[in-house]
Amino acid sequence: MSGVKVGRNDPCPCGSGKKYKQCCEKKASALSPTAWLTIVGVAIAALVVLVMSFTTDTAVTNAACPPGQVWSVDHGHCH
Predict the structure, then answer these.
(1) Cα–Cα distance between 62 and 71 in angstroms, integer?
(2) Which residue in 9, 40, 41, 65 is deepest, having the highest Cβ count within 10 Å?
(3) Rounded-to-integer distance, Cα 61 and Cα 68, Å
(4) Which residues, other chains included, contact 74 with Cβ-Cβ below 8 Å and sequence gap of 6+?
């Protein structure tokens, strides 16, 4: 029966007694769990990148270093 095209209003070939549009057509057009996980993963990654783009990595210029030492922007501590 693989070569026969089923119409939306034809009985479902699975034998449920329902019309194809109310039964297996929905299953055929639904996204797989792997596709949903991929979409959600990409959306979360995009959200993380967006949030990280708004955070600023500014150096602490008024850090309290001991006398004779200066704040190192590269290392994030006093030298």
Answers:
(1) 8
(2) 65
(3) 15
(4) none
CA-nearest of 50, 57, 59, 53 to 77 is 59
Collapsing DSSP to helix, strand or coil, 13 comes out as: coil
Task: Read off the pLDDT of residues 50-72 as tens digits, 9 standing for 90 and up.
Answer: 988 887 665 555 568 888 888 88
Q: Specify whether the CB–CB gap between 71 and 61 falls below 8 A.
A: yes
CA terminus-to-terminus distance, the chain: 78
Structure tokens at 31: 């996204």
Q: What is the pTM of this model?
A: 0.43
Please state, in angstroms and as integers, the Cα–Cα distance from residue 79 to each residue in 59, 61, 62, 64, following that order: 14, 13, 14, 12
Separation of alpha carbons 72 and 27, rounded Å: 60
